[in-house]
Amino acid sequence: MLRSYLKLMSWRTAAKTQTRIIAAARSTTIRTFSTSLCLFQQENTKIEKLVEDISKLTLLETSQLVDQLKTKLNIQDVAPIAFNPSAVSATDAGAEEPAKKEAAEEKTSWTVRLDSFDAGSKAKVIKEVKAMLGLTLVEAKKTVEAAPKVLKENVLKEDADAVKSKLEGLGCKVTLE
Q1: Average pLDDT over residues 37-45
Q2: Alpha-carbon dihedral sign for residues 130, 131, 133, 134
Q3: What are the protein's UniProt keywords (predicted)?
Q4: Dist CA 123 CA 156 (whole Å)
Q5: Residue among 152, 121, 107 at smallest CA distance from 162
Q6: Distance of alpha carbon 114 from alpha carbon 141, whole angstroms
Q7: C-alpha distances in Å from residue 113, one per residue of 93, 120, 175
Q8: DSSP label at 110?
Q9: Residue range 129-139: average pLDDT?
Q10: Please, how many CA atoms are within 13 Å of residue 51, restricted to the half-sphere of its CB?
Q11: Is 15 exposed, middle or buried (0-12, 13-18, 19+ CB in 10 A)?
């Protein structure tokens, strides 16, 4: 019986010891966390103080601060790249004109613009614009009546020519750009 009592007491002692160890670990963790939190808050207040001090500087002092930081941190100045259109010489401008003409000849997308239409064929033009653009009748009417108006943008040359020929067949003046 004494042995049973001693075993029971040793289990109780072990349980109490484990409870004490767990409690100590918890308090250590809480202390460590609160210490970390305090350090973070101190760093945060340090940064806030720096921001507050810098915001009180004059423009001249700020410029000096930037220069000193560049020197201390070994940051090199980067010159801004500026384009001066007047610096282009006349020979360069002359050389660009043929390139522009070639680019215009090689144009792949076109804009179809309705400049005007014959009042007698207004209904036919509205129907054609409605079918061509997939608009409602009211939208097509407003589009036609708002001439000169861009009908289609970024259209291939063949499609633009087809639209132009259809509308010119109805008495419209169409421009391809």
Answers
A1: 66
A2: positive
A3: Ribonucleoprotein, Ribosomal protein
A4: 27
A5: 152
A6: 13
A7: 30, 20, 5
A8: E
A9: 90
A10: 6
A11: exposed
29-38, 69-78, 102-111, 121-130 — which is least confidently predicted?
29-38
* Distance (Å, whole) CA 66 – CA 70: 6
Q: How many CB atoms lie within 10 A of CB 132?
A: 16
Residue type, 145: E
Query: Region 28-49: what's the mean pLDDT?
Result: 66
Angle at 56 between CA 50 and CA 57, to 5 degrees: 95
Helix axes 157-169, 122-133, angle to 10 degrees: 160
Listed residue (138, 167, 136) closest to 151, CA to CA: 167
Q: What is the pLDDT of residues 58-110, one digit of tens each?
A: 988 888 988 898 888 888 776 666 556 665 555 555 555 665 655 556 788 89
One-letter amino acid at 120 equals G
- Is residue 69 within 8 A of residue 75, CB to CB? The reply is yes
Alpha helices in the chain (DSSP H): 2-55, 59-73, 90-105, 122-133, 137-145, 157-169
